[in-house]
Amino acid sequence: MTPEQVVGQFIGGNIVLLLLAAFIILCIFLGVRIVPQSEKHVVERFGRLRAVLGPGINFVIPFLDKVKHKISVLERQLPTASQDAITLDNVLVEVETSVFYRILEPEKTVYRIRDVDAAIATTVAGIVRAEIGKMELDEVQSNRSRLISEIKALVEDAVDNWGIEVTRAEILDVNLDQATRDAMLQQLNAERARRAQVTEAEGKRRAVELAADAQLYAAKQEAEARRITADAEAYATGVVAKVIRESGIEAAQYEVALKQVDALRKIAEGGGTQTIVLPSNAVDAFADAFKLFRGGKS
Fold it and tell me: Is the Cα torsion angle 135, 139, 140, 143 positive or negative in sign?
């Protein structure tokens, strides 16, 4: 008997067992599903949602359950979008945005939205226009971080029913038309000129203040000098008064005579041609002073 005949007899006698073994192998193959870490599988039974398979080994009922959707849970980035918006002060700007998201609940994403990328892009565009419309151009430029936070929070609320988590929203650039740029440049130049004028005016005001302070300081010093001089004169007068009290009228006459002599000396020292008028008793005054001086020494 040839080998072919032996194989034919074996298959003919065990055909049922072979078919049963093949069926079992097929059921095992169809019933075991290995899901990668980066994916989730949506299983349907007779067209209805049956389960969502997570990463690892999963078991389904062969021929009844079918993996209908394989959804990646990795973070995704929408293509950079550009939309026009009008600020609160009626300036037209072109805003470039980018959004990052990932799918957390594939069953919601699959059965509630057809094109998730287009839906998110449309939502972001509407929110960006609405938020920029509440702010002036200067606020858009200076408070970009706050604007991004508000846009991200509003987008998260809008896409929550789709089983999506918005991980990041970015405003890449805010572009202006040429006319607006020219107007802003003129405004910037005017502001620089105003600041220069203010700085110059403040410098002049400071110079006046310093000059006034210097004059006040000089006046205070002069007043202090006069006070010291007055104190010295008061002290000298007190000393003279004390001497007069102790020495009698001769000391007073001596002091008066000295004053007269000093006055005559100052008149004589004056420059130019001048006439010196002497009292009739000027010589007597010199004599009296000399006598008192000698009398005081004796």
Answer: negative
Beta-bridge mates of residue 85: 93
Task: Confirm if 35 and 23 have CB atoms less than 8 A apart.
Answer: no
Residues 152 and 97 sit within 8 Å (Cβ to Cβ): no
| Contact (CB, 8 A) for 81 and 173 | no
Give pLDDT tens digits for 237-279: 777 667 666 665 555 566 666 666 666 666 666 655 555 555 5
* Strand 56-59, strand 65-72: pairing: unpaired
Q: Which amino acid does the sequence have at 74?
A: L
* Contact present, 96 and 80 (Cβ < 8 Å): yes
- Residue count (the chain): 298
Convert 38-47 to b/e letters by CB count within 10 Å (16 or more is b). Answer: ebbbbbbeee
Q: Are 95 and 85 in contact (CB under 8 A)?
A: yes
- Residue pair 119/81 in contact by the 8 Å Cβ criterion: no
Q: What is the pTM of this model?
A: 0.55
* CB distance 74 to 38 below 8 Å: yes
**H/E run at residue 40:** strand 39-45
**SS3 for 276?**
coil
Region for residue 283 given its phi and psi (left: phi exceeds 0; alpha: psi -120 to 50; beta: otherwise): alpha
